[in-house]
Design a protein that fits this description.
The complex is a heterodimer of chains A (164) and B (852). Chain A is an alpha+beta fold and 164 residues long. In chain A, 49% of the residues lie in helices and 11% in strands. Chain A has helices at residues 5-15, 25-36, 41-51, 55-64, 84-88, 91-102, 144-163; strands at 76-81, 115-120, 132-134, 137-139. In chain A, a hairpin with a 2-residue loop joins strand 3 and strand 4. In chain A, helix 1 packs antiparallel against helix 2 (25-36) and helix 2 packs across helix 3 (41-51). By secondary structure, chain B is an alpha/beta fold. The chains are: A alpha+beta (164), B alpha/beta (852).
């Protein structure tokens, strides 16, 4: 079992809020990935048991929504916008630079489990393009130098947390 | 205009209608009809991919575009309700351009690998691209290719079930498979994942697509995305011929089409031949893959005769001479009546009828029975069970019933097509389904209320329903109350272990329902107390007037069980049938008739010395294996005809190879009383012969030709079938006094034996595909019981009853309850009937873990 008792209890509570059980699938998926960090087949089966919905329906909903993580992710999730404004201002080059810098390709996680790199659709900050989001924070008007600095800061921050 | 008038005439009065114009022709259709269906009614073809007549519309493929006046864009006709005054164009330039664009989009990622695709030649996409598409592509980028999980496969194929192969590159995402699986079958082992370019159909997490209806998914796939292993790459579809046939495994008489090659004398697959009155075009897997029993190389090749204790091959002439000699010996020694005839209810009318004449007229015996797998009494007078199992019943009437009761029946295993009907009644007409069983069954998933009664209390439950209806003033009981026990509904509910309120609810639903369908299944017909249960059911039917507003039936189980009853293959057929037969044959044996049970008892006592078993296997199916075997061993002469060597042929003095249902023209009567024909697809394999010819050859050898030709026999049958009507139920209530059954603490668990969902009877384990779904027996139990017994899935369990013991692997079920286990009877390697006792009503066992 990967789901905690607390998560299961919350899922069962969510079910009671809707006229149809199926409606509880998305909240249940959210509860699961907030606890575990990602989703996979075993977790779909556990959710299915908790809210009494066939596992296939849970999996269908989870895979439809790209923002549910399907693989374990690094400590920092780097989401680079690749939509039109950012693209015009060099997002593609930025992504290539990040790939080289981190030694991974888009979609992968660094071996030290620190960074996961993905590119995403518009994050609504076109005025400050090119931009990226790392976990819950925006990093805007990016250049290669600012990217270097941000990565360095985050690495140091992680080390500091490890030591503490 | 003429169309509109013509159509309106066919619509029932009082139904609201709308009138619209399609391609300049006016038509009137019931309100709620889609534009697509209205057009089809006029014979106008609109191409589709995702539309299926038995599923709710989805509108995902957009192929059915039509132009509608005053609507700004093209509309999908499959999901658009026809409205008054609509003007529809199905073939305008705009529509043609729309279709062309859709085909172009669908082909964007389609690999166009028709030469290596098994669907080639019968592919909707191929046909429609040819009809509506363009001949080149404007896309010059790489097509998306699914490769995950397909390592080692040439064409990115992926096996997702025992018989199903998935190719996601070819899929056009019509969702028909996923929708049918969830909506029509209630199965959740297939889903549609992701979205956009990378959207794919795939099995459910951690599961196989192995539900009992999975073959349909392949059949409805419009492209080569889903194919099944039994057919793929064996032959191209245009090299085959088709023969219309029916399913030899189910009493519904599901219509099928056999694809065969005359040159190779081989059947390659079975598909549906949709008949809305019977099957809606869905086939259970046992119907779809069961044809393999005809083509297996293990078939009996020649007659076998016993010489010095060994069965050796012989010619038909030798075998028939021996049969004649031995039958004469018995006749001379003992007189006429000491011969018994047991026959399979899966055989066709001509075989059954001529067999009946052979036993009754030529051999002068009255011992004839088609029931080898049921418990019964040695002598059973004409009875209410026969009447209750041959009521007038229409499968399609299930559709608009508002109250449906499934009583003592594991529908998915016994009557898969009726189960789908019930699902349909729920999906489309919001029927209330009540599932009443001694253990939890899969079909209860659609039930509004599921009731579990204590094992062996069927008649108490039915009495309780009568009492509840009388107590609530919903029916006039007359003298019924004095004839049944217990005396109150509350008492009955307590004995059955069900909630008295639920009992009341069901009684009220049946009393107030507009149209009620009451189905009783094998747990009633197999029960030793079935006379008592049938009487209780007859009481209930009369009390609530169920036959005036619906239908009640104990459904027969095998392909021609209904026919066997109608043709009088019972020891004591109903009087009407007996008189008709006497008139036709000019004779009726005097001797006292015996049931299969009575015959076996008398064989043991050496009072019955000869037996002919046609297509049946009492040693495997009779609910007391040792008893059946010992009895048959005592016989002076045993003649068995079957497709394969079985436990029973092993005991025989003469074994004759029987042709399968696909090898001769035969007529069968389904559970509605509908006579249907299965045509000959192949020549009889090896030296086998159809049942009718075997019976006729035996009779001729004895010197008493039964019929001039099979036509004469068929004519006699049609006269017989036409003249016998449904018996009216007697205008009185029956006494139903349930006897209490003693429990046995040493054997605490109730055992139920029946068919696996992928098998039927004793032959289907020879069908490779079905064997792939389920290849060995298992014991199904709840996880709680397993925990108590310290057993896990796959562990070996020792199952013991008073008379026998077997070892079977454990399968954990989420549905079954804790004091009940289930073992399928279809596997010759597991002798489950050895655990059963013929005199008991409920089989009880104890279970322990096998320690290696």
């Amino acid at each position: 079992m990967m789901l905690s008792e607390q998560s299961i209890a919350r899922m069962k509570e969510v079910v009671t809020k809707y006229p149809s059980r199926k409606s509880a699938v998305l909240p249940a998926l959210t509860i699961a990935y907030r606890q575990i960090g990602h989703l996979d087949d075993d977790i779909y089966n556990e959710i299915s048991e908790a809210i009494e919905i066939p596992a296939v329906e849970v999996a269908e909903a989870a895979t439809f929504y790209t923002m549910f993580p399907k693989q374990p992710r690094g400590k920092y999730l780097i989401q680079v916008c690749h939509n039109i404004s950012c693209a015009l201002l060099g997002a593609d080059g930025l992504i290539t630079y990040l790939e080289q810098k981190l030694g991974i390709v888009k979609g992968e996680t660094t071996p030290d489990n620190l960074f996961t790199l993905i590119s995403v659709e518009c994050l609504g900050s076109c005025a400050t393009a090119p931009m990226m989001q790392i976990n819950n924070d925006y990093y805007e008007n990016l250049t290669r130098e600012s990217v270097d600095r941000i990565l360095k800061e985050l690495t140091e921050q992680a080390q500091a947390e490890d030591e503490a | 205009m003429a169309d509109a008038v013509e159509n309106k005439k066919n619509i029932a009065e009082g139904v609201p209608t709308v009138t619209l114009t399609i391609d300049g022709r006016e038509t009137t259709v019931p309100k709620g009809t889609t534009v697509l269906m209205a057009a089809r009614g006029l014979g106008i073809h609109i191409p589709t991919f995702c539309w299926h007549p038995k599923l709710k519309p989805m509108g995902s493929c957009r192929m059915c575009y039509v132009e509608i006046e005053k609507m700004p864009k093209l509309q999908v006709s499959c999901a658009l309700e026809a409205m008054d005054g609509m003007v529809v164009l199905t073939d305008s330039d705009l529509v043609k351009r729309g279709r062309r664009a859709i085909i172009e989009f669908i082909l964007m990622n389609h690999p166009l690998d028709c030469p290596t695709c098994d669907k080639g030649g019968e592919c909707d996409l191929q046909d429609q691209t040819f009809a509506h598409g363009v001949d080149d592509s404007r896309f010059d980028f790489q097509k998306y290719r699914f490769t995950e999980g397909t390592e080692g496969s040439t064409f990115d194929d992926l096996r997702i079930g025992p018989e199903i192969v998935l190719n996601r590159n070819r899929c056009i995402l019509c969702y028909k498979c996923v929708r049918a699986n969830k909506e029509a079958f209630g199965e959740y082992d297939l889903g549609a994942y992701e979205r956009g370019n990378i959207m794919e159909i795939h099995r459910a997490p951690g599961r196989q697509v192995d539900n009992p209806f999975s073959g349909n998914l392949v059949e409805i796939c419009p492209v080569g995305a889903l194919t099944n292993t039994d057919w793929r790459y064996k032959i191209r579809v245009w090299l085959t011929q088709t023969t219309s046939s029916i399913c030899p495994f189910s009493s519904s008489g599901v219509n099928t089409l056999l694809y065969k090659d005359d040159h190779q004398q081989k059947i390659f697959r079975t598909t549906s031949r949709p008949n809305d009155d019977i099957d809606d075009g869905w086939l259970a897997d046992v119907t779809r893959y069961g044809y393999q029993i005809a083509t297996s190389p293990d078939r009996l090749q020649t007659p076998l005769i016993k010489k010095d204790g060994q069965q050796v091959p012989a010619t038909w002439k030798e075998a028939l001479e021996i049969i004649n000699k031995r039958l004469n010996e018995i006749k001379d020694k003992k007189g006429r009546v000491c011969i018994g005839g047991i026959v399979s209810p899966s055989l066709d009318n001509a075989t059954l009828h001529s067999f009946s004449k052979l036993i009754r007229v030529t051999l002068g015996s009255n011992n004839i029975d088609y029931r080898t797998q049921y418990r019964m009494l040695p002598k059973e007078p004409e009875n209410v069970y026969d009447a209750m199992s041959a009521r007038s019943f229409k499968i399609s009437d299930i559709d608009d019933s508002d109250v449906i009761v499934a009583f003592g029946s594991d529908l998915v295993k016994e009557h898969p097509n009726e189960y789908l009907r019930i699902r349909k009644a729920c999906n489309f007409h919001s029927a209330s389904v009540y599932s009443v069983n001694p253990y939890r069954v899969k079909s209860a998933d659609v039930a509004r209320r599921e009731m579990i009664y204590k094992v062996g209390t069927e008649e108490v439950f039915l009495n309780g329903l009568c009492l509840a209806a009388i107590e609530a003033g919903m029916a006039e009981g007359g003298d019924l109350k004095e004839k049944i026990s217990p005396s109150t509904a509350a008492e009955a509910a307590a004995i059955c272990g069900v909630d008295a309120e639920h009992l009341k609810e069901l009684a009220a639903a049946m009393a107030n329902g507009r149209k009620v369908t009451f189905i009783a299944g094998e747990l009633v017909s197999r029960s030793r107390e079935r006379l008592c249960i049938s009487s209780a059911l007859a009481n209930l039917t009369r009390l609530l007037g169920l036959e005036n507003k619906g239908q009640v039936s104990i459904l027969p189980h095998y392909a021609n069980s209904f026919g066997a009853g109608k043709l009088g293959l019972l020891p004591q057929p109903p009087e009407g049938i007996r008189n008709a037969l006497t008139e036709l044959w000019g004779a009726w044996p005097e001797a006292e008739p015996l049931t299969t049970d009575g015959m076996l008892i008398n064989m043991k006592k050496e009072e019955v010395n000869g037996c002919i078993a046609l297509g049946c296997n009492p040693v495997m199916l009779y609910p007391d294996r040792e008893f059946a075997r010992e009895s048959l061993e005592k016989l002076d002469f045993l003649l068995v005809a079957d497709l394969y060597e079985t436990e029973t042929t092993g005991l025989a003095d003469v074994v004759l190879p029987l042709a399968s249902w696909a090898e001769y023209d035969g007529r069968y009567i389904n559970l509605e009383g509908r006579v249907q024909r299965a045509n000959r697809a192949l020549k009889p394999r090896f030296e086998s012969k159809p049942g009718y010819e075997i019976v006729e050859a035996i009779a001729e050898q004895i010197g008493d030709k039964l019929y001039e030709s099979s036509d004469q026999c068929e004519q006699e049958i049609s006269r017989l079938v036409e003249s016998s009507n449904v018996q009216p139920l007697p205008d009185k209530y029956f006494d139903v006094r349930p006897a209490e059954e003693e429990s046995d603490e040493e054997y605490p668990i109730a055992l139920f034996v029946g068919d696996d969902p992928h098998h039927s009877g004793h032959l289907t384990e020879k069908a490779n595909s079905l064997f792939n779904f389920c290849g060995e027996a298992y014991i199904e139990m709840s996880s709680e019981l397993a925990k108590k017994l310290d057993l896990k899935e796959g562990d070996s369990a020792r199952v013991e009853s008073k008379v026998g013991k077997i070892i079977v692997p454990v399968r954990i079920s989420t549905t079954i309850n804790n004091d009940v286990v289930f073992i399928p009877r279809n596997f010759s390697s597991t002798t489950v009937t050895a655990l059963l006792m013929r005199k008991k009503r409920t089989d009880r066992v104890k279970i322990s873990k096998v320690v290696n």
